[in-house]
Structure formats: structure tokens, C-alpha cells
Design a protein that fits this description.
Four copies of one chain form a homotetramer. Chain A is of the alpha+beta class. Chain A is built from 18 helices and 23 strands. In chain A, strands 3-2-4-1-10-9-11 form a seven-stranded antiparallel beta sheet. Chain A has a six-stranded antiparallel beta sheet with strand order 5-6-7-8-12-13, covered by helices on one side. Chain A has a four-stranded parallel beta sheet with strand order 17-20-21-22, with helices on both faces. In chain A, strand 2 and strand 3 (50-56) form a beta hairpin. In chain A, helix 9 (266-280) crosses helix 10 (296-306). The radius of gyration of chain A is 23 Å and the shape is elongated. The two termini of chain A are 23 Å apart. Chains in contact: A-B, A-D, B-C, C-D.
């Protein structure tokens, strides 16, 4: 998908009094860096306090050994952020610390992936209660309401109460001085996995974070489930009678290929999507070339199924990261040039099947097609391992507005013309679903078909909120 | 090759009064980041001065927009360093600025990839002349002698004189207030490419740096050639009747696959090495898996030739970089775990052909084999697209000592046992050479066969120098 | 005056091709640190370019040896900022670089101390011309107009033209690739001194900056004068028939005691103010105590004239600087406590004459009086070496609004009660003027008597502008 | 004394579960900044852990709000360092954390002002026990022995044991998870004060640190006393039958004038030294001028006693701090020029009595005398409020070696000639002692008369150690 779409966030949590919990969180956030590069933070619980450190930047830039050594405790949560709502400042970084009732040992920290759809409602409640938000995020609203609620009732009770009022797609980790809570929204739209290692438990947006610390994948946190991990072990509570509505984007794009979703490695599903794509849209060509890194598994699957040789003919600079250096003026397409360089000898004179997982705005895709042509490609056949994205997402993924979504405004033929490719095919929704091995009704497919899993009254609020955001 | 071997440095130069030379250098150094991650620096020439900025860290960490905007001029050189001699401090970072005769407009800056083999001799000369080195590098010695020499004779003449006395494998860029010089050693052991774009010339360790700024590859700087680029264009001078003795390591490991060596893309040569490997050492197996990223092209070639399906079953964290965080204690193999994660579903129960470009010390390779076994691999057949490295390199690549080189001490069978793989095969020297399409005598193959391209008397000095270094 | 009032900015310029101009600027800005601690910057001219570096923070925090070494050229300007208009961000830091016509060698940088009073008019002109300001400062408006003007006429001519339109109290330094310009407003409200050393010229807000680099004070830049310093030496031009209207605040508070104003050291004038204060308001007491550091000279003068022993009984922490650490909650008066500590043995049981140069808002003064009482002072007689400040300043000093000025709202007796002192006396305007040795009509005394040196029509604009600023 | 002598360190400790202990420590270290500017650190105790943060630089540079907020706990210690032994690196910064038996809740941190004189002996013991020092400081040796000792016996017992073996001049603060210990050496050479505020206790090198946080000075920690502060309050233990041998340097130079030593404010003692100096060495002159800041109180005392007018005619830059910028080449005396600027009008034609507290190497003093002459002083009479320093100190103050001490090698007349002054007088030892109001035998005066309070056998070891250090 190149750099067109903005990714969601990563959340992580660990409860393991015998282990160095901040170091475990550090390495796990590093493994989940792909889900957010704007800011990173870790909060740690001691017997009486929660301490927290967060900064703008990549995990490796934010933390150093001195900082990690200060983060001592028996449990921790962590977060990598890519802003979907609120502006890009440290004030919006997570985890967020709430100390209002610190004297009672009720300080807590909270980190969050996804989007509340009734933020305006929550903000109104916050305002009604006379609470003072320090930032404009969902996280701040939920935290303030929780801070207020837990003054009068047990923490877990206050948490359930606010969850019953919050509506949206989210995965939440909450750290108190005595427990770690992991919460998944009633439709399980955003991912959240539970793992274990000899001395404790871990939760993470993706199971790939477990391997780096020697943990083992147990299961997904279920729709509408609160998992609480404390000194007395793990307990589970359902605050809603949920059902599975997983975001399909995680399956074909967001998640690392080595993460497990609903019991199956994502890589294998993507290989299968590539195979299906070869069957659905075969083409007489010389080489199959992935758009790195996201198109790789589908391209391998396509090549395998079609028998056309696979070549990584777009070389990616290994050292990626956020840069704040202005581009060279003369290089319109430098954004892509900085990341990718075509192999002329491999491409020149060839009929190329270019494989990617999706197209959002299409600008990067167009530059890549142009790059292939300049390198001498005789034909460029573009194959996408997902259906056209026609509708914005209000559940945590920032595609932008209708205007920006190329498939919201153009037919497949028009898109092909716009991108400058000889042919273009999107994998059918049926085949994408089939590749996952799960029933169609267990997915949120709203960005493809506008069938929203969250009911209408809420939807209107969403739209309003999003429009205000623009 | 994983992380076993230490890479050489990158040099870059640009002469283009109409362009933003420091920005061009920045993006080029970014493209050459793989050749050195310890420090980075840029020097720029104005009419009267050379100004220079360098710091420890990656290109993206060292420079910011404020710094780049201060680096204004008509020509620039840049450098990424991985120390091969001298310790890892800012004092040893490059380019090095020499201002001794700044009043005469003879300030210059110098950057260098490779190793002088007669450093002791040069240091003796420096000491005899009463000059005061600020650091222990070759670069400092050459610079001091040049600074001294150019007081009495024209700069180019002084440069030739010192080059005639310096012995070793090096690529050198020198920046004066009026010209950019690019120098390649008489055996062209280290790489150096020349490129052009509408408004000027560029030189770089690798041609892959040209694409990022819209430049075009012209040719290699030739053995014993000095290229001078000034306001009056490009001129060339031979200070030695050189011959080609290219370092083979650049062909199968160091260079980016999209760089051109002797007129041919490196990727294609590596695909051919993989194919040759499949012919030389076929094995009945289920999947071909590369060690990312270095083993990728050979693995694709192997898969293509053998018909065994290709799978990128070791997932690499996209966000690599130098970390100074201590590892988790319980994870002995974390160094590898932090970078790679195996796909269990793909590997479990399979007979795996694991392909890498080379083995140096073998510790990373052993961890990878173990990782595959833990993921359920039934068999692991290791295939290496180069011959065993049996001898240290004294020409700019830090393999370490004999003791550290696994193939200097063990037979192939012993290595296989040590690594824990079911079979192991190194590609024959003949086939590696054949894959490049160049004659065998145009390579330095000393690390494989101890045939040193630099004569004996010098060799002894080298050995002595290296022993002192340990 | 303690920390009640906000200081103006410092400007500096040097033209000295044989010297290290950025280092000279660095040390001079360091000597002028008291005039602004928010940001610091240096711009340097080479034959073709102006390069500039600026950051938030103190001079010693902003620059390091690496940065200074990049700032090579034949002339430089520098600036320390304390914002009087515009918000406190890097975007508002100075010098400001204008490169619009860089190709013609007409890049320039500009730094500024003071306030334009017709900013709205200038902004309207900027808008009319379709220019795009990057910041909200006067400096940006003047620079944009100058950048626009010098496209069609010689630089000096364009400069004069804009100066004829700009109205206000300012000292301006402008750096082009071939000259340094120093400009003083037609009423010479803000200070600007000219100095010389063997190899070149220097200009600075205060002459105390010259000593640190071995320069010699020549004279003041005169009202409405443009001094131009280039390779051909110094030339002078009058763009307005100015008259002296020096800000009296510089005489009794802002300037370093070792600076020279109108040919006389400031320290001596302040000693004389203290003596006059002792004559005007004698009191039977045991010790004279200055509010450090600003009240020191007047207190010495008071003690000398009165014969009452002088004691520095309020100890100041030597290590001052901007802190971003939140205060201890329980310490309401910590702002003062962090800076001053009373000597109990010296103060206990004594009748104290406390001397300061001025009172602005009065909050710090009140804390100091309270501190003396807590330390056991039997009586506290407050003596101020300037008259009550009753009116806001629109010429570069940020007293805030009428509401904040204690003397705008209370009588001297009421102020004494508010501060909690046994007696309070402000030195009469006549005596302050007399201590300077200059005629009363050569000062701007608007903050004492509302007699504004800039005519009425403009004043209204000023008021409007200021009100908008609140 | 100008910048000739190197200062000792500052230690601080607080036990106050109800207060923000890290913020209290921050402000206190800020008040003690004059005792060490090389590095700063704070360690905080939670129920189970000690966490510590330290960096090179001033207190205000080392800490920011994010760091302080991580340092939560019920007790804290802090340290500012100026290295007297060991090199200037972060590895030698304090507090030092020891976590060897962290599992048992026996982690502790340690900070230290002074010098162990039997470091070699301690190091031998460390080596004999097979312990691995991470640094070369006394603190590390004591900490390692304590860490080893407390495995087998109660912490306080282990502490006493190691104190009985350590010999030297030191003030020590030790933080465990349940207590704060403050220890003073058996001769009380280095200072250590005990204070109290409503919610807890504080200890500090100087009582001036108490005021900043609203604390009250209680008493000195006594010779050979261990004070323990825990949840159950304060208890005291004597590990040695000590006697007072206070370092006289603290009285006339090191301590802030607002600190209390043995019940009396230091300022008053220094005023008295100045008065005695006026009586002992009167001179017919026009003004008394202090060397700021250290000579100020004695100069005020001298002026008061002699009736000669006092003037602060050497203006000091308020913004001091460590700079790493190279000086301007042409300014040999820039070190002094950067800090001081003479008032020409005040000095010209005058006979000046220059007052300072001490002379160590004399280089700064010479520059100041020269500066006064250049400013037109007719005569310069130098008066020093302490006797000549003839012998190195082995108890925590770094005067350097015999060779560097001007009075170790020259007579007073020779020193006067070397400094270029018209007359020079050092206050007699009798008068210095008299000004303190304490008996002579309660001081360590070794630097004046070589009478060492620690017996001979140890002295030899000291000498040996120090010689090795050079």
C-alpha cells in the first residue's frame, strides 16, 4: 500500500513482578513500531505509584538505557501512536497518566488503539462533570471519566460503567498499581492478543510482539471482554455480548505477516490472497514484482500459482524512518525515490505483474508504475490483493475523506488509466474473505461496502465528528 | 550474512554550483546508510571556506533541516563511517577538515573508504615532519601530509605525491574551495562510481546513490585514477598504472542489489549465484527461505532454478537501527530474535533450504538454524552463495582475526555440525566468479585463497599493524 | 526590579573578514544575555550566501563548537530575544533570513530590538503586495518589504525607503553578503553603540559587549542614522532628522552597569541616583540592603551618602537561568525563594533600608519585604531609584497593561501598604534625570508621565495594537 | 578566589513520604550548584526499588519535568559533582546505585562528598572479595563493600562496619528502600547539616539548601555520627568517638554566605574577616573593590572598618556556566574577560584595594590586577581574607600539586611581584580563626600549616595515591 494510508496505534501490556517489565515493553513496542511512529511511551506500576515516560519519535529514539532503568515496577503498559484524531503533539502521546486520586492508590495509566465514535458525547459528559481535559483525545475523555468514576466505586466497576457508555472500535490497556486490564470493543474491530510466559502475562495489538520476549500466544481477547491480570492471576469479564467484526485491513495490510489472527498466521492468508488473485486475474507476463514490503506475500503467492518468476525488482532502502528534511526541489517523485529504486536490468523489456495489498489515494502507486516504465517495463499489470476502498473508516484507520479515496470516485478502468498501468485487478471480496478461512459475517467490511457494524444513530454522530475534524 | 561482519564506509561527492549540494549529499548518504551506521558527516565548499558537520549516528539522526541549511556551497562531500581502524568516537568521524593554510584558500576536507596498509609508515612521516595528528585514522595521516605538501606546491601535485606513497585499498574524496577530487586505489579494490546530472557531477561508493537524486551512472572511477571536477568541468589523471582487483565481497554482500558494478546490476549477479548454487548443491526440500535481507536474491535464484517454492519465512523488523538498550537477560539469542521472527505455519514440518550470501563468525547463522528448528523445520539445508572465508581482510573489511573466522578453523562438515544444519554447501569460487561475468584475475580473492594483490613486503607491515590493533 | 518586568532584546553585528566573526558574535551575545533569554541566533555572510542558526534557549545552550565552526564568513549579526510581540516560538526567533533573491546575491538577514508601532500598517502593505509572512513579528514584515523592495532598486535605497515608512522604537542590524547595516530609530529610543577593534567594526545594543572581544567603544549610532560597514570601511547616512529621546529604563535598569550611554558609564549614574535618593528620603536605619542584582549600585550610593552600613543581605543563587520545572506546591513564594535567601543574622532586629531600581507589578517586591520581616527585620524602608511607572510602554518594554502596573492604580501610600513596608519613596523624575547629566528633553519618559515622543495619530494605532495583543 | 580552585561536591537527602521528594531534591541541588557543576543526580526510593537518574551538566540541564515525574517515592538523595578523584565521565557521576541483592529489598544508592584516604586499601579489599568495580571512585568501593556486607548482616550493621574501615574526610548519604542514612566522618572535615520541615527531614552539605524548600536548620551532623531517618523517625548512632576538625576553606570560600556553620551564618564571619584584614593591613586608598562573588563579604567588611568607599567595580556576567566553546585566539586573558568587566570611570586614577578570599594558583588574580591597571587604576593593593595556601589538600579539595600552588613556592613579596600589585597582604591564621568564633583546634588547617588531622601512616598512603593520580 506504500505510504498512502496512515496506520493505527499499538498497545501493549505486561504483568510480571519477577521480570524487567519496562524492558519487555520496550522490545515489544519495537516489534510493533509499524503500527505507529509518531510517539512512544511506557507506564510502569509500583506499589504506590504509576510512572510514565513518553516522547515524540520512534521507540529507539524515545528510550535510552537511563530512562528504562528508572521504569521499575511489577507491571507495565506501552503505546506507539499514529494520530487518527487530535493533533500530533506530545500532549496527545500515550499512555496517559491519571493521578487525581493518587493518595488512595488509585492512580492509573491508559493506552488506546482505535476510535471512540461517541467522543462528542463523552466530551459533553466530561464538561458536565466540570473535569478539565488536558488534550483532545478519546483517551483523555475516557481517562477523566474513569478517574471521576473510581472515586466512588471500585476501579473495575467504574471501568465497566464507562465502557458501557463508550461506543467505538478500540483496544484498551489500563494499568493500576495492582492490576493490568486489557479491554476489547464489543465487535472486536481492532486486534488484541493475549500471551503468556513462565513469569507472567502479556497483551498486545499483535502476537508478533510476544516472540521477541519469549512469550507464547494464548488466544485473542474476545469481543466485549475485559481481562484483568493481577497478583492473583488472570480473570475475565464480559461487559457486552459481543460478536466478531474484525477489521479486514489488519488481515491484508496492517498486521505483521508473523502475527496470528484468529489462530492463523497472517502470512499464509496473504499467500492465499495472492494465489486467488492469480486465478482471478491471470495475465501473460514475464515477472511478478511486489511493492515492498506490503505486497510481498501476495506477490509470492501470485508467482507460485501462476508460474511467473518472482523478482524483488523494487529495492527498498533498509533504513526507513520519519524524516523532517525537505525534499530536493527538482524531484517531484522523491517521496517514492527515497524509498524505492528499480532494478533496470530485471525490468527492462519485461511485462511486469506488480502486486500490492491495496490502493488508498493512489499517488504512490502512480509513481511506482511510472518508475517501472522509466526502468523499461514493456507492460505493467497491477494486481491488488483486496477490493477497492470506497468508504472512509471511522473505526481507527485514517484513509482521509471521500475526496482522497481514489476508488470512491473512479471506476476500476478509470483508476487504471490514472495510474498509467496496462491492466488493473482488485481481488474480489469473496476471495479475500475465503483466504482468511473465516465467515464473512465476522468482519467489518465497511470501507468496501459501507455496511457499518455500529448502528445508525451512532453513525451520524461519527460523520459529524469526522467532518468537524477535517 | 546477518550481523556478523562489519561493513566498510560510504563516500560521496558532488560538484553542482546551481544545486543544493548539501541536500543532495544528505539523500545520497541516506541511500548508502548500509555501508556505515556509526557516524555521518558532510563538508561543503564556499569560495573561501570549507565547513563541515559530523556526528555519531545514522544520517537521519545526525542532520536536521537547520543544519542542512547552514551547509551552503557549490560542492560537497559526505561520509558514513563504520570503523575498521581507530576507535569509535567523534574524533574519528569523517569528513576531516584541514585548515592549516586556510588563509591561502587551501583549506580542504577529506573522506575515505578503505584501509591504508602502510599507515605505520605514513604515521612515521607525519611524526618526522613534526605534525600533530588529532586522531588515529589513515585519513588524518593522509590529510596532514597533504596539508603539509600543499604549502609548497599546487594542491593536485601534492595530492599525487602522497598517493604515490600511500599503499592500500581505498576510495578517497577530497574537497577544496575550487574542486572536488575522487581517487581510487591502483587496484580498484574498494568501489567508486562516477555519475552525472544536468547541473553537475557526482561520485559515490555505489551507483545506487545516484538514483535518489536523479543522477545517471556514467562509469567506474578507474584503478589509480584521480578525477577532478571543478568549474571548468571534469578532468582525469592516472597516478598509477593500475589493474582491476575488485573486492569480491562487494559483489555478493556489501553493495546494494540496485548498484552497478563494472556495468552490471548486482542483483542479477546474485540471482545467478543462487542458480549456480541450486545446480551445484541440489537437495530434495519443501521451501527455499532467505536469510533477510542479504540472502534474498540468491534464494530467489535458487528457488527459480530448483523449482522449490520460495518463502520469506523469516520476518524482519522493518525498523532496524543501532540500539544501546541492554537485552533481556533471559533471551540468549535475542540479538537475532530482535531482528527475525519465524513463520511457524510456513516452516513447521518442512524441509527448508536456507540461503545466505556468506558466513563469517557463524554465531548468527547458528541462531537462525536453531530458530528454524524451534519453528518445526524437519530438515535445514544451508546454502551459501560464496566460498568459505578463511583469511582476514586487510583492505577495509573487518572480519576480525583468524580465531573468529569459523571457516579458518573448521572444515565444511565441522561447520555444518557447529551450525546444527542437516547439510551445508558453499558455492565454488569458480561459480561465484562466473556469475559476475568478469575474469577471475580482476578480483581480490584474498579472504578465500590468501592470494594478496599487494606485494609481500607491504603485507608484513599490514600483519604487524593488524596485530597491534587487536 | 526583580523579575517583574520583561526585558527587550539584544542585537549585535560585526564586520571583520580577518577574524572569526561567529565566535566574536557568540561571546558578545553571551555578554548581552541579560537582554533576552528566550532564543538566540547568529547569521553569517559569505561571498554568496547568508547562513543562519538559531534556537530556543540561552546563548550557551543554543551554540556548540560544531555549530560555531560552520558559521564561517566575513561578517555576522546576532540576536538574543525576549518576545515583546508575537508568541514564544522558534518561528519568531531572530535573525531572520530572507533569500527571495538569493540568486542575485541579495539574500540578507535581519535582527531587531524594539517595537514598530505601525505594524498593522506594515502588515497591510505586506498583504497588499501578496507576500507571505512566516511569522507575526515586526521583523518579518520589514524583511518581507525589504526583500520585495530590493528586487527593483539598490539594497541601501530599498532599506531607506522602508525605514521612512516604519514608525517605532527600534535598533536594527541587517547583514547582506557584502555589508553590515546598523540602524537606529529617529528618536534613538532603543540603544545602539558602535565600536572598533584593529581588524573591523562592531555594533551592539550595549557597549559592554565590546570589552569581551577586545573592542573599543567609539560612539552611539545617532537618531535616524544608518551606519553601513563594508570592505571599503564605514559610511553613514541619515534617513530622518532625528532627536534624542532615550528610554530612561535603560539608564536605571536594563543596561549592564558597565555599559556606556551617551559617553558615561551607567554604574556611575546609578550610584548618583542612590545618593540623590538618600538625600531625598533619608531614614534612621541600621543597614542598607540592595535587591540583587539590579538595586546594587543605587544601594551602594545610598549607603555612601547616608553613612548607613551596606550589606548584601539577600543572597542570590549564582546559577540562574530559565527553568521549566514546576514549583513545589506548598511554596507560594518559591519564585523568589529560588533566587534569594535572606541572611538572618544580618537582618534580625535591624531597621532595613531596602533599595531597588524600580517597581513594576509589585508582586516580587512584596515577597522580598515579607522575606525580610520573616528574617526578623524590625523595620523595612523601601527606596526606589526611579519614579513610579504609571503608563504602559509601546516602544519595546513589556510592562503589561495598566491593570498590572501597581503605580497606575495605587498611590505611593497605598503601594507601601500593599508591599507591607514601613515607608516607601520613589526618586523624583528631576533627580533621576540629573543623575544622568543629560537634559530632560533627551529622554522618553512616557511610562512616568504619558508624554509620548511619537505623535498622536500613531499612538492610537499603538493602543489598538496592544489591546489586540492582550 | 576566582576560578582557580576546584570545588567539592554537594550531597542532599530527604525523607518525606507525604511530599514530592524528587522535586525537593531538585531545588536543593539547584541551591547547592556552586559545589559542583560537572554532573548531577537524584535517586528515589519506592517500597521495592531504588531508581536513579544522573547526567553530566548543571542541575537545570540534567533534569526536566518528565524526568522529575518519573522519580516518585518516599525518600530521595541527590548529588552535584565536581571530580576530585576519578575522571570526568558519567560513569563517575553520583548517586551510585547498588542492586546486587535487589530481590531482598536491599538495593541502595549512595552519594558522597570528600575523599577516602585509604582508597587503595578499600580497592584491595574489593579485589580480594572478587567484586567488580564499574568505576574508579571511592563511592564505588564503599558501595561494593556495603553491598557485599549487607548480604550477611543487617544493613545498618554492614554500614557501620565499612565506616570503621574507611578513613578520610567525607559526608555520605545512603538511601535504602526503607531509610535515609546521613554519615559524617569522625573529624567532621566536610560539612553536613540536618534540617526539618513539617512532613519530614532533610540533610545537606549546606543549610542554605533548606530555605529553598521551606525547611528549618536543626543542627550539624556530628563527627562520626550516623543519622538514620525512616518511617519511625530519626535515630542517631556514633561509629567513632570523633572530634571537630572542620575544613577552614568552607568558612572563607566554599560555603554560600547564607549557610550556617556551627550555628553561625558564614556571611557574618566573612564580614569579620574583612574587618580584621582592614585592621591588620590598612592602606591609604580611594576605593575597596571585591573580586566577585567570593571576595564580596570581606570587601564590605574591609570598607566598613576602614571607611574607604566600597564599589563593585568588576562587573560579573550574571549568566555563568560551563562553556565548551573555544576562546577567541587573540584574547589571552579571555577566561577572565568573559566573566569580569572593569568600570573604567570608577577605577581610572584611583588607588584600589582589591579584596579576595584566597589565592590558589594566582593566574586569575594576575589577570584581574592587570585588568584594573588597564582600566586606569593608579595603585592596586591586594588583600586576601585567608592565609597563604602552601600545602595540597587530601581531604576533598583539589588545589592540585605543590607546583601549582603559588604560595608553596614563593614568598608573599614574590607573589606580589608575580601578580603585579603594589602591595599584598594575607590575613593571619589567628584572625581567620578568631572571625569564626571557634577554637583553633576545631579546624583542619593542613593547607596552611601542614598539620594533618589524620595520622602519619595514612598520610603516606594518601601521598602515594595522589601522586599516582597526577
Amino acid at each position: 500500500m506504500g505510504s498512502d494510508a496512515r496506520e493505527a496505534c499499538a498497545v501493549f501490556g505486561v504483568f510480571a513482578p519477577e521480570r524487567d517489565v519496562s524492558r519487555i515493553t520496550y522490545y515489544s513496542l519495537f516489534a510493533l513500531q509499524h503500527r505507529g511512529q509518531e510517539s512512544s511511551g511506557i507506564a510502569v506500576a509500583t506499589d504506590k505509584h504509576i510512572i510514565c515516560y513518553k516522547e515524540m519519535g520512534l521507540v529507539q529514539q524515545v528510550f535510552n538505557e537511563s530512562i528504562l532503568r528508572m521504569l521499575k515496577g511489577h507491571a507495565a503498559i506501552g503505546h506507539n501512536r499514529y494520530s487518527t484524531t487530535g493533533s500530533s503533539t506530545l500532549a496527545n502521546a500515550q499512555p496517559v497518566l491519571f493521578e487525581g486520586c493518587a493518595g488512595d492508590g488509585r492512580a492509573f495509566a491508559l493506552a488506546h488503539n482505535g476510535n471512540m465514535v461517541n467522543t462528542a458525547e463523552l466530551a459533553a459528559e466530561v464538561s458536565r462533570l466540570g473535569l478539565s481535559p488536558r488534550a483532545s483525545t478519546d483517551t483523555e475523555m475516557i481517562g477523566l471519566l474513569l478517574e471521576h468514576g473510581c472515586r466512588e466505586k471500585p476501579f473495575a466497576e467504574a471501568l465497566v460503567e464507562i465502557l458501557e457508555r463508550a461506543s467505538g472500535a478500540y483496544s484498551l490497556v489500563v494499568l493500576t498499581t495492582d492490576a493490568l486490564y486489557a479491554v476489547r470493543d464489543p465487535l472486536a474491530i481492532r486486534p488484541l492478543a493475549l500471551g503468556r510466559f513462565p513469569e507472567g502475562y502479556v497483551v498486545a495489538s499483535e502476537s508478533a510482539a510476544f516472540a521477541i520476549v519469549g512469550g507464547e500466544h494464548l488466544r485473542e481477547v474476545e469481543p466485549g471482554e475485559i481481562v484483568r491480570i493481577g497478583a492473583d492471576g488472570l480473570s475475565s469479564h464480559r461487559f457486552a455480548t459481543g460478536q466478531w467484526r474484525n477489521c479486514m485491513f489488519e488481515y491484508f495490510y496492517f498486521c505483521r505477516p508473523d502475527s496470528i489472527l484468529r489462530g492463523k498466521e497472517v502470512y499464509s492468508m496473504r499467500i492465499e490472497m495472492g494465489r486467488a488473485l492469480a486465478r482471478e486475474a491471470p495475465v501473460d507476463a514475464d515477472i511478478v514484482v511486489p511493492v515492498p514490503d506490503s505486497g510481498m506475500p501476495a506477490a509470492i503467492g501470485y508467482a507460485e500459482e501462476s508460474g511467473v518468476p518472482y523478482h524483488e525488482a523494487l529495492i527498498k532502502n533498509r533504513y526507513v524512518g520519519r524524516t523532517f528534511i525537505e525534499p530536493l526541489q527538482a524531484q517531484r517523485e522523491l517521496g517514492v525515490r527515497m524509498k524505492l529504486n528499480p532494478l533496470r536490468e530485471v525490468i527492462a523489456g519485461k511485462r511486469v505483474i506488480l502486486v500490492d495489498d491495496s490502493i488508498v489515494r493512489g499517488s504512490t502507486s502512480r509513481e511506482i508504475v511510472r518508475m517501472l516504465r522509466q526502468a523499461g517495463a514493456r507492460e505493467v499489470h497491477f494486481r491488488i490483493s483486496s477490493p477497492p476502498i470506497r468508504y472512509p473508516c471511522y473505526y481507527g484507520i485514517d484513509f482521509g475523506t471521500y475526496e482522497e479515496l481514489i476508488a470512491a470516485n473512479l471506476s476500476v478502468e478509470e483508476i487504471a488509466r490514472r495510474l498509467g498501468c496496462d491492466s488493473l485487478h482488485y481481488l474480489s471480496l469473496e476471495q479475500v474473505v475465503a483466504a482468511t478461512g473465516l465467515p464473512r459475517e465476522e468482519f467489518c467490511l465497511a470501507c468496501f461496502n459501507d455496511e457499518r457494524p455500529i448502528p445508525l444513530r451512532e453513525q451520524m454522530k461519527i460523520s459529524k465528528f469526522v467532518l468537524e475534524k477535517q
